[in-house]
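Please annotate this fold before class:
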Amino acid sequence: MLENVTLLREDILVRPDNPEQITKAGIIMPSEKKNTGEVLKTSARVKHVKVGNRVHWHKNSGREMPYNGEDFLILSAAKERGEVIAII
């Protein structure tokens, strides 16, 4: 699916957790975006974050990337940028 995506520098590609909640009646209730998600891909320079890790990041960090109808987030794993707060 994401084979064509090449990450540069010390970037990671994350699928954010879905903040939408569906009621029993089937109504979709969007809520505030969550700051957690699963790492799907990392650049070759990233050593401390692995594919499959779950991460938490600062609220306004990263760059949104729509791809094949899904929304992803590109975050910097570089310690000096500080976008990734924790691996959970």
Remarks:
- The first strand starts at residue 11 and ends at 16.
